[in-house]
């Protein structure tokens, strides 16, 4: 892997974004590496819980500037394939059979915040800035909007997606997008302890089926949901 590292510690698998010189900005190869890493971790019986974190000052700055420029000259088919790859990554993480925790120690912008949004839990340091900034550069936050609406509802989603404003961890926590805020010197330990509790106290099969239930039941009527 060129842009992604994987480490294992006591049944906790760490997916590490490793393009720090580019603020872990995404490109096509990076997205494919992430998809492969998550699929491998899902199949690995020695992994019970997954943590995604990053090397460098930023968690993920969204799509790389040079990469965005190439989209302007790509054909419709090429851009559709590009968007499909990102869609597959977000859907993969959201529906993964194992719990995924985002450990955000640096800014998470645009697609970078989308990456954290589709995780099951988000831990962040107080200084982090989050922002769905697509509208500021003439893009549409299309893929992440589906997951965001499910997570926080229409009014809050409109506030974030239409403004493109940057917010800090405390505001993201109030919106329901960050679960726990921890100082930088403590976040590694806090995330590991939390992941370990899931590993030691919870059933893998129960967590898998509960994730699937939450994902599947939301579009159903009360009657159909109860039958499910």
Secondary-structure element pattern, one letter each: EEHEEHHEEHEEHHEHEHHH
The largest β sheet comes out as: 6 strands, mixed
Mean pLDDT: 95
Number of helices: 10
- What's the β-strand tally? 10
Assign an overall shape: globular
Stretches with pLDDT under 50, minimum 5 residues = none
Structural notes for this entry:
Helices cover 51% and strands 18% of the residues. Strands 1-2-3-5-7-10 form a six-stranded mixed sheet, sandwiched between helices. A four-stranded mixed sheet has the order 4-6-8-9. The longest helix has 20 residues, at 76-95. Helix 1 links the parallel strand 2 and strand 3. It has ten helices and ten strands. The protein has helices spanning 28-43, 65-71, 76-95, 111-117, 142-152, 154-163, 169-175, 184-201, 204-217, 222-227; strands at residues 4-9, 12-17, 49-54, 58-60, 99-104, 107-109, 121-124, 129-131, 167-168, 180-181. Helix 1 runs parallel beside helix 3 and helix 4 (111-117) packs parallel to helix 5 (142-152).
């Amino acid at each position: 892997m060129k842009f992604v590292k994987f480490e294992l510690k006591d049944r906790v698998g760490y997916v590490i974004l490793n393009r720090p010189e580019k603020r872990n900005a995404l490109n096509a190869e990076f997205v494919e590496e992430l998809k492969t890493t998550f699929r491998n971790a899902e199949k690995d019986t020695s992994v019970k819980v997954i943590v995604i974190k990053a090397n460098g000052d930023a968690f993920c700055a969204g799509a790389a500037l040079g990469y965005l420029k190439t989209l302007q000259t790509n054909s419709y088919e090429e851009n559709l394939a590009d968007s499909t790859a990102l869609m597959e990554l977000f859907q993969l993480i959201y529906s993964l059979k194992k719990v995924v925790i985002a450990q955000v120690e640096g800014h998470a912008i645009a697609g970078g915040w989308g990456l954290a949004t589709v995780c099951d839990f988000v831990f962040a340091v107080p200084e982090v800035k989050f922002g769905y900034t697509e509208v500021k550069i003439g893009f549409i936050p299309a893929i992440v909007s589906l997951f965001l609406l499910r997570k926080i509802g229409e009014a809050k989603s409109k506030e974030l997606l239409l403004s493109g404003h940057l917010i800090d961890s405390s505001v993201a926590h109030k919106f329901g997008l960050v679960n726990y805020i921890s100082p930088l010197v403590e976040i590694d330990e806090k995330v590991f302890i939390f992941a370990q509790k899931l590993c030691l106290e919870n059933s893998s099969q129960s967590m898998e089926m509960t994730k699937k239930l939450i994902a599947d039941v939301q579009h159903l009527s009360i009657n159909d949901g109860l039958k499910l």
